[in-house]
Design a protein that fits this description.
Number of strands of chain B: 2
Oligomer: heterodimer
Helix content of chain A: 55-70%
Structural class of chain A: mainly alpha
Radius of gyration of chain B: 26 Å
Largest sheet of chain A: none
Helix content of chain B: 55-70%
Structural class of chain B: mainly alpha
Shape of chain A: globular
Number of helices of chain A: 14
Order of helices and strands of chain A: HHHHHHHHHHHHHH
CATH architecture of one domain in chain B: Orthogonal Bundle
Strand content of chain A: under 5%
CATH topology of one domain in chain A: MetI-like fold
CATH topology of one domain in chain B: MetI-like fold
CATH class of one domain in chain A: Mainly Alpha
Number of strands of chain A: 0
Radius of gyration of chain A: 25 Å
CATH superfamily of one domain in chain A: MetI-like
Largest sheet of chain B: 2 strands, antiparallel
């Protein structure tokens, strides 16, 4: 009897409170609190899906309808048959975006993980100072220094250069910070054991550290992906050659024209919605695939 | 992943310099590889973060129109900013403060509340709901413009207008994004909507990491309700994550400054209603080519971020 009561008591504990194991009626109130906020967050997402597949008569419908009734791919075929006003096909922007994002993510992983390895596991005089500088740089707001950045990029002859999409995003203080914290969780003994086996730093970095910090690598990959894929500013500010601009930039031109042409907004809306969906989907898919890695990295994210 | 623990031979000294290394190589052997590993990041960091900040600082004491080389003018830009820039004092500064207070602490409190509520749920629903809450932050900037522009569209085809007309709450369509009295509210809503980002995830992870025994001990010490539990156990146990979330919220708030221009479709925003400090920088830098003056405004912005981050630091890191 006592065991039964204890067992009941135990399940009761496990099903309420922080991180419960299963459903418990006491959780209903939390669902009720979350429901309106989740709906508010979710509706614009549903809208973009629904809008992208609407045929013209539904885009024009009055009163406007939220959900699509007869979904069609017309907006997407329209999008890809379009040329920008300067004659660059849409697929070119998309290709640029994919290439730029892939290269930036790869380079960013290399740059951040190597630096984080040094800051976490190597011994050198300036170690604490350099990490402190990076922590201050967490507060860095890139948009504040757009103008001096422009002048520096101009000096480096990076204007209208393909690499301007990639290089400025490589130093990511948040990324370095998260990876460094994660590597701190790898015991020093593991590194020392490898040193005794005669491994040099490059071997330790490649064969010991990297395989153990994959969740952090996934996280920085996501953060870099989002920052690069969604970046329209680089194309706006630093690139004048249309064939070097990215898809995010092309999307801004779509929404800008649909705002100024008044009566024709609705026609442009379908294409813009299709383009927005193409912008949004890769973000979503990558995050869904890697979310458990991100969460395990985030538990190391504390700032002391 | 299992690691074999090995007996370390008594004579092995893993960090000693290689025998026979050249004299100058003493330092290189000890610390050289650390700097080699740091070099790529350091280079990017110096060129694209440190130099721009220093340049902003330097240019803020000059007059610079991008055609002539900059001429030193001392504190003139700052004096003009504080005494003569009517638009800055009347619109930009109050707007920025209003926006920052509501989106910063407001969004931060919301993120904590959502993270805490989510932590009370089992893993599967928690993961799904966290994904939904996080996903707007992936859409930073451009991707969602079309959605908001359609919802807040000024003609009767706009979703909000159509909805309110249907309910007879308004008699004729409202120009939401062009009206000075609505633009700021909409900017704040949209920014809050997309503010559950990295900081939110960090706080959620922080809450889930707290040792359950602390709560049991707390209940023995007389903690009787959830609110006391949050104040006395949850927040003190996750100060580092709280601080990380706070810094992310501050940076996110000031970084989100372009939203007014994006929504209303032009800089300056209608009657400066949505003009934030970031737009003011752009206005002077890229539209009027007064780079020195724009740099002074940038420095003010960076100082604001630093000030608020210090404040957060005081709140959450002060006690240990």
């Amino acid at each position: 009897m006592a065991t039964l009561r204890r067992a009941l008591f135990k399940t009761n504990i496990r099903n309420s409170g922080i991180n419960p194991q299963g459903f418990h009626p006491s959780q209903i109130k939390f669902y009720v609190i979350l429901a309106p906020l989740v709906a508010f967050m979710l509706l614009p997402m549903i809208f973009i899906f629904s809008h992208a597949f609407k045929p013209p008569d539904e885009l024009f419908a009055f009163p406007p309808r939220f959900f699509v009734v007869n979904p069609t791919l017309k907006n997407f075929t329209d999008l890809f048959s379009k040329m920008s006003t300067s004659g660059v096909p849409v697929s070119r922007y998309l290709f640029n975006s994919v290439l730029v994002t892939a290269l930036t993510v790869g380079a960013s992983i290399l740059v951040s993980t190597t630096a984080a390895y040094a800051l976490s596991k190597k011994r050198f005089k300036l170690k604490q100072t350099l990490f402190a500088i990076n922590t201050v740089a967490l507060m860095f707001v890139p948009i504040a220094v757009t103008i001096p950045r422009f002048l520096i990029i101009e000096r480096l002859a990076l204007l209208d250069n393909f690499w301007v999409h990639i290089l400025p995003g490589l130093a990511m203080p948040v990324g370095l910070f998260l990876i460094k914290q994660f590597i701190d969780g790898v015991p020093d003994e593991v590194v020392e054991a490898a040193q005794i086996d005669g491994a040099n730093d490059v071997q330790i970095y490649l064969t010991v550290i990297l395989p153990m910090i994959l969740p952090a690598v996934a996280t920085i990959a996501i953060l870099t992906f989002q920052a690069t894929w969604n970046n329209a500013e680089t194309s706006t500010l630093y690139v004048t050659n249309e064939s070097l601009k990215t898809f995010a930039f092309y999307l801004t031109t779509l929404t800008a024209t649909s705002a100024s042409t008044g009566a024709n907004t609705v026609a442009g809306q379908g294409v813009a919605a299709a383009a927005s969906l193409i912008m949004f989907l890769p973000n979503l898919i990558i995050f869904v695939l890697l979310q458990s890695q991100v969460m395990s990295t985030m538990s190391h994210s504390g700032l002391k | 992943m299992t690691t074999q623990t090995r007996e370390r031979p008594a004579f092995a000294q893993p960090s000693a310099a290689l025998p026979g290394a050249p004299p100058l190589g003493g330092w290189a052997a000890r610390e050289g590889s650390a700097y080699a590993f740091l070099s790529l990041y350091a280079l990017a960091f110096i060129v694209f973060i440190v130099l721009p900040v220093l340049a902003a600082f330097g240019l803020s004491f000059t007059f610079f129109d991008t055609i002539q080389p900059p001429t030193f003018t001392g504190l003139k830009n700052y004096i003009v900013l504080l005494t003569q820039d009517d638009i800055f004092m009347r619109y930009v500064l109050p707007n920025t403060v209003q926006f920052a207070v509501l989106v910063g602490p407001g969004g931060y409190a919301l993120a904590f509340m959502l993270a805490w509520t989510l932590a009370q749920l089992p893993k599967l629903p928690r993961t799904i709901l966290a994904l939904i809450l996080y996903s707007p932050s992936m859409t930073t900037g451009v991707a969602m413009t079309v959605v908001w522009k359609t919802i807040f569209s000024g003609d009767q085809n706009g979703y909000l207008n159509s909805f309110l007309l249907g309910l007879n709450l308004i008699q004729e369509p409202v120009q939401w994004l062009q009206s000075p009295q609505y633009l700021m509210t909409i900017m704040i809503l949209v920014t809050l909507w997309s503010s559950m980002g990295v900081g939110f995830l960090a706080m959620l992870a922080g809450i889930l990491e707290i040792n359950p025994e602390l709560y049991e001990a707390g209940s023995l010490d007389g903690i009787s309700n959830r609110f006391q539990e949050i104040v006395h156990i949850t927040i003190p146990s996750m100060r580092p994550q709280m601080l990380f979330g706070a810094v992310m919220a501050i940076v996110g708030t000031f970084q989100a400054g372009a939203i007014g221009v994006t929504l209303s479709g032009g800089n300056p925003t209608p009657q400066y209603a949505g003009q934030l400090i970031v737009n003011h920088i752009e206005d002077f830098g890229f539209l009027r080519y007064e780079m020195g003056y724009a740099a002074a405004v940038s420095v003010v912005l960076l100082l604001m971020v630093l000030f608020f981050s210090r404040l957060a630091n005081r709140l959450f890191a002060g006690e240990d």
